[in-house]
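Give me the 3D structure for DUF3348 domain-containing protein.
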Amino acid sequence: MVQAPQCIDSTAPALSRLLARLTNIDVPESSQSLAARLSQWLGWTDAIALSAALNGAPPAVASGVRSFGSAEEHECARVRATLAKTIANDNAFATASPRGSAHRNPQAAPIDATLDYAAFRQRYLAMQQTMETAISELRGRLRRMLAARTPDMARLALVDATMERALGAHERNLLGAVPGLLAGHFERLRQAGQAAPDDAPASVNTPPVTSDFWLDVFRKDMQSVLLAELDVRFQPVEGLLAALHTR
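Predicted structure for DUF3348 domain-containing protein (247 residues):
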């Protein structure tokens, strides 16, 4: 039986709340400030680089860089929409049938009696790599535009680049653990699905319970986690966009 979800701070990011619900992990609210938690991730070389970026002389304003405009903003929106569409349309997450329908979706991956989690894990990791590459390129592009504005904006671009280098490995390690957390959810759903009879009656509001319905549930859950992770990964881009909008 799938256990009841644990409580988590309602102000936590959607990704944290979703993982807490799916994995039954209790994530208490931290008593430390954001600065204190970040300091645990920074080595002494990172701290020196960040201090220099914050307190040193403002970097020279870059020249010859294309100015920020609607085309760049549209490009940011396009990249995000493309990544979301890639996640939404991936065959690995296509459900076998619409809710309440007996007709199988031909795009859905076939169900195998020996199906294990490895294939889903590899697909999740591939999606993470796609997101990281696209967003890192976009972030660098926005930093170059920011650095061409004013000395203060150039300093902000330098701080963002320093933080990306300092925290990148920690971010990859944390987000890289997400597929492992979902493995337990996969197994719990599979066990519940194997225990459910194929001919369980359906009601108006409840789809028929079949031996493969659990896999549809898991596919949608994993897709939701990826979309929530996309939101988290895009936050630095949103911050740079907000800075570029200032005059």
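Residues 68-97+112-245 form one domain. Let me know if you want a second pass.
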